[in-house]
Amino acid sequence: MHQSWNRGYLVYPADARSTHSTLLLDSNADSLTVTLESGPHTRDMFVSVEHPLLNQSEPTLVPSATEYQVSLPQGPLYGKIKVWTVGVYFSTHYTVHILRLDETMNVTLSSWNRFPSEQQKNEHGDTSFEEERRVQYLQQNSLWYVPDLDMGHNASLQVRIHPVIFAPLSLHRNLPEVPQVTDTACECGDIKDGFGDDCALQKPVEQARSSYCIYLLATKPEIELHKGKASVAGVGCDIVSWLVNTTVSGKFVGLSSAGLRHARIDDVGLLPFAHVKTQQVHGIDSRFSIDLPPESLMQEATQLLISPTPDATDVEVQTIPLRVVSHAPPISLIFNATPAAFLLPAFDSQDLRSEYRLCGGANAAIDRLSALVLDSRFRVVNSSIYSSADCNGPKYDLAVIYSPAECLREAMNLRDLTSLVSTCADESGVWHFIVGMNKPAAVTKLLEAKASPDSTSRGETPLRIAAAEGREAIVRLLLEKQAKVNLNNTDGETALSKERSVPCDPTPLVSVLTAAECYMDSYVLEIALQQARLDVVKTVLEEASPALFGDEVKEAFANAIFESPVSFIEEVTPLLAHKGMPMDSVVYDEPMIAGAVQRCSVELVDFFLAMNATLSRALLKNTDECKDTTVRSKINSLLQPKAQTQRL
Fold first, then answer.
1. Model's pTM, two decimal places?
2. Region of residue 600 (left: phi > 0; alpha: psi -120 to 50; beta: else)
3. 1.10.600.10, 2.60.40.10, 3.40.50.720, 3.50.50.60: which CATH number matches 2-100?
4. What is the pLDDT of residues 586-595, one digit of tens each?
């Protein structure tokens, strides 16, 4: 019988005398074709396949001259194909042992450093950079972080393919160049950053009732065969030539990227590597190399395409993502944030930034901040720059800026002032900054984020800062949010304190709110009445004169009677009357008591009558607006005696 195979390498000649032979077959192959030719005295041929992952099957009868398709599971496990020929005189059993072949692959990047360290210059005498990593590591870590490369020189990328035969298998770890088998996880040790683990190759195997791992710790770069007549290899064995052949086989390496510009790119956009001939006589490594500008390796979607199979009839292409990054890997910030001290924005490993702000005033101790990089090839070098300007010192990969002004700007950019105002508005001088820079929009955002308008910023209240700085718009915003005008600063002064000597001696707050210089407390009083601010009214009235109660104040008081809480009206009215405000004033052609009648408040009507309020004929008709007849009746009963007294 004669046999021939369309894949793999048959170690011994395929003739009638070779009852046992060995076929080296790529572990990715799941089928192959064998051509069987029977001899003149052969009547029948039977074929059977044995493999640990296949069920036992009966031999299959095949024609005397045929191409027979054999299916085998992929992977590293040994199998065998048996051919039984039934002859006229005797029968013969042929066995082909299937040993699976795989490859270890390493990629080496060589270039030149742009900023070599003094240690490198002293130890190596040059500025070259070279690093090797396993392809299986590169498949899981496509970003290749390297030092700053010199873009003025080409980089070299080299791929080394080394064949591995999964035979024999050993249970002893003390044979590193022999594939090991274990029923636990692969014993490959820890991953070395930028390279990979201790295993040159590892193949997990799953069976119905068990799982195990086959791995290899080291490889032999050469195979030296004994080709004598009595040797195992035999005289004509050319296995080394088959393993390293790149002319007939499908073995190749190429680079694919949308940004590639190279004269050797083919029609499909693939840049092939050049084959580097080995200098070792018995070497079995295949090496491929290419020189190109470093920026070509820094493009998005760059892929390394490797076909490691020595077969000539099939190509098993592996696609490995690759992108060289010419700076340090991401830096992780470590800071135990609290409501009193935090980073803006909060550090998020999924959303990395080059700059952060450290906020929290005295609580944001810079020595509580640390950084690390999850790659032992790099180390973090910390430096502190004290400057009133931005970080424009030495080149850095990540900056943490400690500045109240920057905290505010960042919080506004992120539209998140809630955390900032919890501490920063008080302790870090943010109020000083936004008021001093006249930023009404920032004040609005802080107040919307529930910042207290009465918080103390470096010993001063926001209202006093705004008044002293002449920030009218900010003063109005703070008053609208009920800022206390009589709140003391650390020197015992308020926003209404007499700080400047002018003819009418107005306070800073009053001077901001009006252009006139005399009796301008009336404007503040008007605002206080509009907002039902009893504390402000009391402060303004401390040194008030009758001239204070102009038409604007009277109108504000009339509106307050109609809109403000009854308790506020009952407290503020005696104060105003005591300082000389006439309760019989007419506003909007109506007496002061009109607001009480219009809101149908029996309590306020009775209160103003007791204050000797004046009535009008029109007012007596306004009671008809009260829908509640009981309330209307009570108000009329209160008004009628007064109306008779005034002869209305």
1. 0.62
2. left
3. 2.60.40.10
4. 887 888 888 8
